[in-house]
Amino acid sequence: VDPVTRAALAARRGDRAGLERFVALTQADVWRLCSHLGGGADPDDLAQETYERALGAIRRYRGEASGRTWLLGIARRVCADHVRRSVRGRRAVQRAYTVVRNDDLAEQIALGHLLAALDEPRRTAFVLTQVIGLPYEEAARVVGCPVGTIRSRVARARADLLAVLDPADERRPTLRPAGVGR
Amino acid sequence: VEIRRVDCAEVAELASAGLDGELGAAEASALDAHLAGCAGCSELTARMEAMNRRLRIRPAEAVPDLTAAIVAAAPRRRRRRPVMAVTAAALAVVAGSILAVAIAGGPAEPALAVAAAVTPVPAGTAGVAYLDIANRGGDDRLVGASSPVARSIELHRTTVDPRGRSLMSVAESLVCSSRLALEPGAAHLMLVGIERPLSAGDRFPLVLRFERSGRVTVDVDVVAWNAFGDRLAIRTAGA
């Protein structure tokens, strides 16, 4: 059993140290996912909400999926719920990126904007596999879809990004506003 | 064995999976066979590889460390020692001052107790301060700090990314649910522009600004680095 799953099972038994380990091992991935999928909402808040839901439901976690997969699935639903709630009257919040003492901040922000322009299913597949680094199999479990679907969405996301980053291609950029079509 | 034929429409997906190491041996050789005879697809694949390198060499995004806040907010199943006991333990060990701000009112009002405020002797004009805030009431947020000894004070969070690198980021605010520990590896106050030299044994006032509780003034003890390590060990064991 991997360390995250072990910590999740310990947390489920009410072990406070296990809970702390579970959060410490996963919170960076949860925050990253929330920063890309949360539609511009504060990822701190979305991450907090993810753990609230997860820790409230941890008694029902039996270790069928790995602890990370289970938690990222919840994070994804928290983000989706939030985007759905805020589709109308969305404030132009650009707080997804904390102020960082890092020369590459501009690069990071640029990547954030690029990803934000991808269709939601493609962005999710891309973030899970490229930013968080999950294998296709695990990304498929987080999303609840076949592995082949992740494979084709990642490829389409790459094609979309390529059309913008490297427009040697004759095709018109395929980027559309997030959340439109597939 | 029949070799699978690949046509141009499939190349983007196969090449993409190949970049992620998600291609089986049979598919990989079928893709290679196609690329060997198709200049257009070879070019597409090369551009995809170049973009992949460009995206991969980007630094890992800096991520705040929310562990303390999340754990503090987590529901408790068993009663732990009450927060006051922790604070008392810290008080017994640490000569630093404790200031309790108990605000009368409903249960949603924050009730803060700040303990163990220390600054290791600053090496130059910048220093760090650590402290421990217990909250027996509703959630609050630390939104800023100031002190006559420093030109300005920033809230910093430390995060360790999956590759083990520590990233420091400036936080607009830090959540203070039942506990906010500003300690090495998690968060600290960064004192910028320290005007006069501080040495071990000195004590200076620090004003913490909270979203709901307003201003809270504490005394910060300046300690030698080795003494600081001892205090830290004691605090970790006591909490």
Q: What can you see in these coordinates?
A:
The complex is a heterodimer of chains A (182) and B (239). With 182 residues, chain A is mainly α. Chain A has helices at 3-12, 16-37, 43-56, 67-85, 105-116, 120-131, 136-143, 147-165. In chain A, helix 2 packs across helix 4 (67-85), helix 3 crosses helix 4 and helix 6 packs across helix 8. The longest helix of chain A is centred in the N-terminal third of the chain and has 22 residues, at 16-37. Chain A is globular, with a radius of gyration of 17 Å. The model of chain A is unreliable at 88-106 and 169-182 (pLDDT under 50). In chain B, strand 5 (150-160) and strand 6 (166-170) form a beta hairpin. With 239 residues, chain B is an alpha+beta fold. The longest helix of chain B has 18 residues, at 39-56. In chain B, strands 1, 2, 3, 4, 5, 6, 7, 8, 9, 10 and 11 form an eleven-stranded mixed beta sheet that branches. At the A-B interface, helix 2, helix 3, helix 5, helix 6 and helix 8 of A face helix 1, helix 3, helix 4 and strand 6 of B.
Radius of gyration of chain B equals 27 Å
Strand content of chain B: 25-35%
Percent helix among the residues of chain B?
A: 25-40%
- Sheet with most strands of chain A: none
The helix/strand class of chain A is: mainly alpha
- The helical percent of chain A reads 55-70%
Q: Sheet with the most strands of chain B? A: 11 strands, mixed
Quaternary state reads heterodimer
Structural class of chain B: alpha+beta
Unreliable spans of chain B are 78-107, 232-239
Counted by DSSP, the helix tally of chain B is: 6
DSSP E strands of chain B, number: 11
User: What is the residue-averaged pLDDT of chain A?
Assistant: 79
Following the backbone from N to C, one meets helices and strands of chain B in this order, namely: HHHHHEEEEEEEEEEEH
H/E element order of chain A: HHHHHHHH
What is the mean pLDDT of chain B?
76
